[in-house]
Amino acid sequence: MKNNIDWNNLGFGYMKTDWRYFSNYKNGSWDEGHLTIDENIVLNECACVLQYAQTCFEGLKAYRTVDDKVVCFRPDMNAKRMADTAERLEMPPFPQDRFVEAVCSVVKKNVDWVPPFGSGATLYIRPYMFGSDAIMGVKPANEYQFRVFTSPVGPYFKGGAKPITLRIPDFDRAAPLGTGHVKAGLNYAMSLHAIVDAHKKGFNENMYLDSGTRTKIEETGGANIIFVTKDGKVVTPKSNTILPSITRRSLMYVAEHYLGLNTEEREVYKEELNDFAECALCGTAAVLSPVGKIYDHGVEINLPSGMEKMGEITHKLYETLTGIQMGKIEPPEGWIKVIC
Ligand code: PLP
Ligand code: COI
Question: What is the pTM of this model?
Answer without folding.
Answer: 0.98
